[in-house]
Design goal:
4 helices; 17% helix; 3-stranded antiparallel beta sheet; GCC-box Binding Domain; alpha+beta
Length: 188
């Protein structure tokens, strides 16, 4: 089902093969990135920004309720590698990008650490009061938790999680210490 057509968004085609679409959210203008080769799929639709509190990001949404990332990949479950919902460049091994087809399991592997009120700032790491050590664990197959060990420092426990995550989750692993360039926060 294609969404209703409205006035197209303003856009700017950049020399690096990226097109920036300007989306409105309340009285702000936000930028949504796509590859220029995909512009023909979205150009006739009016897009706006939609805040998704559970994901802590904006997504490009049509007035018909279609999310741009699903339209571009033509699949129901899409993973944003860098967690930026307005970066809708389809991933390829040659050009990079952000969107890749996924499943609920692969999206969970790439999920950020939940909650601010935890003992550690690292995913898979928590303070063990009784032993006075940092423990590390990873969740495998959606439910089974595997204990990775107890460590003197948070960083050592985070390294243990990263090693296990690379092995178990592969390219979908969200790492604590050695984040790929697509996932690093830019200075603002």
């Amino acid at each position: 089902m294609r969404p209703k057509l409205h006035t197209p968004n303003r856009c700017r085609h950049l020399p690096n093969g990226t097109t920036v679409l300007f989306l409105q959210y309340k009285n702000k203008t936000l930028r949504c990135r796509i590859w220029t080769r995909d512009y023909h799929k979205v150009k006739d639709i009016h897009w706006s920004a939609l805040w998704m509190p559970h994901a802590h990001t904006f997504y490009a949404n049509s007035h018909g309720g279609i999310l741009m990332h699903r339209l571009l990949l033509d699949c129901a479950v899409v993973d944003h590698r860098n967690h930026e919902g307005l970066d809708n460049r389809v991933y390829s091994s040659k050009r990079g990008g952000n969107l890749r087809p996924g499943s609920s399991v692969t999206k969970a592997r790439n999920r950020r650490k939940r909650g601010d009120k935890t003992s550690s700032r690292y995913k898979g790491v928590c303070w063990h009061k009784r032993s006075q050590l940092w423990s590390s664990r990873i969740q495998v197959d959606g439910h089974r938790r595997v204990w990775l060990g107890a460590y003197q420092s948070q960083i050592a426990a985070a390294r243990a999680y990263d090693t296990a995550a690379r092995e178990v989750f592969g390219v979908f692993a969200l790492l604590n210490l050695s984040k790929p360039s697509c996932c690093r926060r830019r200075a603002r």
